[in-house]
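Technical note accompanying the year-one report. For the benefit of new consortium partners, we illustrate the data format agreed upon in the data management plan: each record pairs a sequence with a structure-token string. No post-processing was applied to the example shown here.
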Amino acid sequence: MVQQNEREKFSLRLALACDKAGLPQHGRQADLAARMKLTPKAVSKWFNGESVPRKEKMELLASVLGTTAAYLHGYATEDGITPNHASKVSDSYRVDVLDVQASAGPGTMISNEFIEKVRAIEYTTEHARTLFNGRPQDHIKVITVSGDSMEGTINPGDEIFVDVSVNHFDADGIYVFVYGRTLHVKRLQMQKDKLVVISDNPIYERWHIEEADEDQLHVVAKVLLRQSIDYRRFG
């Protein structure tokens, strides 16, 4: 009974979100199915209160409608939708390139100045879905790496695509983080009760962040992939 009630509440919120986002009632289910690359039958079950999307599909649905998964689940009261958002959505996915360098070296001092967007990279939504596993475009940013401590994995001058919605250590991986007053891109790994900071370039030693010093660690983003410049000069 509880599950049925949750499905019905989700169905109601979905309909309200579609109304505000500007999706006309006629053809609404087919429209969403096409945007999300799903079958109309799968989408119809959401509107009929028969099922609720799983996490990845829920986040994609929220992105299409301009709201949040928390709102559709009923965990948040504010939908955050810009009226007629969906009617303005095109088949494009824009990723902002930011004017900041993350250090794969001894660390880059950070300033309090606002980090500006210098340009944007545009993808089709289908290509972006493959690259970023359905993450909303607002979560993805691009920054340039300086320094050679991650060389072999991330080289100086490479651009990295990061998920700025990740603001804490959630599993072993490569992160952009501030420690003290310096900005780094390094591999973080939990070993017993210590967080190990690893440079993939073997000439750099690993170092540890003790529990007593964790308040100096601020995770900015998690690295998803890199784009190498790989210039070769012949003259």
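Partners are asked to follow this layout when depositing records. The longest strand covers residues 93-103.
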